[in-house]
Amino acid sequence: MFLTGKTALVTGSTSGIGLAYAKALAAEGANVVINGFGDAAAIEAERAGLEQASGAGARYSGHDLTKVDQIEAMMAEAADAFGGVDILINNAGVQHVAPVEAFPLDKWDLIIALNLTAAFHTTRLALPHMKERRWGRIIQTASAHSLVASPFKSAYVTAKHGLAGFTKTVALEAATFGITANCISPGYVWTPLVENQIPDTMKARGMTREQVINDVLLAGQPTKEFVTAEQVAAIALFLCGDAAAQITGANLSVDGGWTAG
């Protein structure tokens, strides 16, 4: 258990990729703070399972990451419980699909706040502890959309491109402190985020559900397979290890070849 004694905070981790991250980190002995929304009983079951797997601590934070004061409260509670955050994974995200001229203003603001601005706030609050410890891992769940665009996803593509640029800046600033900052950019992973955007895409493009899956979601992935959450989590676990100490400022594609073309 090479992460024993370390504390990881994973945003958007009550399901999907985020929960897979949390499980992978707990299996290596890390204290874990999970964050997100969902059924209270289901979340508690996952939290207890993480604690059992790690033999360490696991806490749940239900704070709303679109609000700065709640982000600050979440980070303070993690510090109070475990001394500080050593591994920060910014994974929380939301999506909306619509043409630029019809994109709802509230959806734009929400996507930028949750997918991009929240990562700035968690990072700025985590860095002092990491610098003091002279060790830290900052990992962003970016997306293939941090590298390429798709129609009808202006806010999401903007946020993810911004996240990639922000990560490079953090990597440069923290490079002499034993801290790395990297993006993992998955292609389409079968998660609630992906599943929930199918109806909007059907409406925007006039397609059936099957057409959206085959002709939109998997059209750009040469493998014609969804990435799994566990595959993404395995990359994050590698980035936390000593073998990845010189990988920083990178954007690691896990997209079935989508961005190779």
Automatic annotation (TrEMBL):
<dbReference type="InterPro" id="IPR011294">
    <property type="entry name" value="3-OHbutyrate_DH"/>
</dbReference>
<comment type="similarity">
    <text>Belongs to the short-chain dehydrogenases/reductases (SDR) family.</text>
</comment>
<protein>
    <submittedName>
        <fullName>3-hydroxybutyrate dehydrogenase</fullName>
    </submittedName>
</protein>
<dbReference type="InterPro" id="IPR002347">
    <property type="entry name" value="SDR_fam"/>
</dbReference>
<dbReference type="GO" id="GO:0032787">
    <property type="term" value="P:monocarboxylic acid metabolic process"/>
</dbReference>
<dbReference type="InterPro" id="IPR020904">
    <property type="entry name" value="Sc_DH/Rdtase_CS"/>
</dbReference>
<dbReference type="InterPro" id="IPR050259">
    <property type="entry name" value="SDR"/>
</dbReference>
<dbReference type="InterPro" id="IPR036291">
    <property type="entry name" value="NAD(P)-bd_dom_sf"/>
</dbReference>
<dbReference type="GO" id="GO:0003858">
    <property type="term" value="F:3-hydroxybutyrate dehydrogenase activity"/>
</dbReference>
<dbReference type="Pfam" id="PF00106">
    <property type="entry name" value="adh_short"/>
</dbReference>
